[in-house]
Design goal:
This protein is of the alpha/beta class and 290 residues long. It has nine helices and 13 strands. It has one domain: Vaccinia Virus protein VP39 (Rossmann fold, 3-Layer(aba) Sandwich), CATH 3.40.50. Bound molecules: zinc ion.
Length: 290
């Protein structure tokens, strides 16, 4: 029987269970916009152990691809071609470009959800490298691809907790934070692991994008139940600032409304800023269905 957790708002911890769900996804995975702070999130989610065993990315992404092809063959084919182009050129360039511009010194670069270690491999020889990956199969591949790197097979929060404090020059979260059941705990763990002046480079789907408004239910950023947080430019900035980060870079070209994704570079301040929302878990276990 899969375990399911119930989440309060991951941004401000308000209980929205009595509020209506948004008509944008399956009933089984209710999507809510917090009445208090406006953050959009999945109220029920699968905990880490389920993500690893049942919903691990390499499995669900194949199922999702098959479902989209069956539902909308033409759109899916064009979208695949565009995505392949973007994945091969634009996306990698953007992550590389932000890394080159913002990562300084000889601290460790940590990739959260490092998969096979493909991105880390592009940095080999330039920085000490570390990867956190929940899937056993992918973590084993990353360790093989990256001899000398520290590969930690764990969920993101406890994986980052295994690194020494103030040791990382950068934490990469490219297409990761939307999956994290406890995003505030992950930001707190990131702040701890970073050295002062170190950066977190974050890419998430942009729930405020034009395409999301236009495509409604069919927007490519919806993945049930893998994507549990739906950030907009406003809500990602709010969560980062109240977690104690400075915003290092967030220009319009990092979150153009025509893109399905947004990028933001956060920095650990050299003089700590007050954390105005104390991090605590937003999820609790639900009893299994009878
Ligand atoms: Zn809220």
């Amino acid at each position: 029987m899969p375990r399911i957790v119930l989440r309060h708002c991951p941004a401000c911890y308000t209980d929205n269970t009595a509020a209506k769900r948004l008509p944008l996804g399956p009933k089984k995975w209710p999507l809510k916009t917090c009445g208090a702070c406006g953050f959009t999130y999945l109220e029920r989610a699968a905990p880490y152990v389920e993500m690893e065993e049942t919903f691990a990315w390499e499995k669900t992404s194949q199922q999702e691809t098959a479902r989209r092809v069956a539902a909308e063959p033409t759109v899916s084919r064009v979208s695949d071609a565009l995505k392949t182009f973007r994945a091969r050129t634009l996306r990698r360039d953007k992550l590389t470009e932000l890394t080159n511009r913002h990562v300084r010194g000889d601290g460790t670069v940590v990739d959260i959800g490092c998969a096979h270690g493909r991105f880390l491999k592009t940095l080999a020889g330039r920085f000490p490298l570390a990867g956190v990956e929940i899937s056993r199969a992918l973590a084993a591949k990353a360790a093989k691809n990256l001899p000398g790197a520290t590969i930690i097979q764990a969920d993101a929060v406890s994986g980052l907790g295994q690194l020494p404090p103030d040791s990382a020059a950068a934490v990469i979260m490219s297409a990761f934070l939307e999956h994290e059941i406890e995003p505030r705990l992950l930001l707190a763990a990131t702040l701890r692991a970073l050295r002062p002046g170190g950066v977190a480079i974050v890419k998430v789907p942009n729930f405020g994008s034009l395409n999301r408004r236009f495509r409604k239910k069919k927007w490519c950023g919806f993945r049930f139940p893998d994507h549990v947080n739906y950030f907009t430019p406003r809500t990602i900035v709010a969560m980062a600032r109240t977690s104690g980060f400075e915003i290092r870079e967030f220009r319009l070209r990092d979150h153009p409304p025509i893109s399905d994704n947004l990028w933001i570079v956060l920095a650990k301040p050299t003089h700590p800023l007050p954390v105005t929302t104390t991090p605590q878990p937003c999820s609790q276990d639900l009893p299994p269905d009878p």
